[in-house]
Amino acid sequence: PMVAVNCAAMLKALIERELFGYEKGAFTGAERSGKAGLVEKAAHGTLFLDEVGDLSPEAQVKLLRFLDTGEYYRVGGTKKHAVKTRIISATNRDLTALVAAGEFRNDLYHRFAVVKLEVPSLSRRRDDIIPMAKHFLVECSQKFNKTFSSISPEAEAALKEAQDRREA
Hints:
There is one protein chain. By secondary structure, this protein is of the alpha/beta class. The protein is built from seven helices and five strands, in the order βααβαβββαααα. It has helices at residues 15-20, 38-41, 57-69, 95-100, 106-112, 129-143, 153-167; strands at residues 2-6, 46-50, 71-73, 80-82, 86-90. The strands form two sheets. The protein has a three-stranded parallel sheet. The longest helix has 15 residues, at 129-143. It is elongated.
């Protein structure tokens, strides 16, 4: 399985129970049977952590422990769970600057930085704009059962002109 989670979109107080799950009675309103977390749902697959630079210090500690051992506890639980999963993370924040500022754990950064792939912004890859627009047009056309197959020369010119205005 491929499980994606946007760390920035979750309340900092809820990220631990979403990632690692919880046991029944762990907190007021907890489901009677407890709940498996996203880590467990990604077992033998991939867990994609988007906007990992927004994780709270508490969540960073728990995630680091999981990355080191492959083990975790559900919130309110005493039973250790073990899961093998691939972790991919992304962020639009400069993690090295966050580490230097003491806002991101250095040891966690090094776990994530095993393979770094930096993608320049689209404004620095102008030649990609039209091919990407064409790709998404075809994809949406298929998804919504339309017959669009290309972008008009006028639309291409408008996309290029909009980019020129942003750079000015």
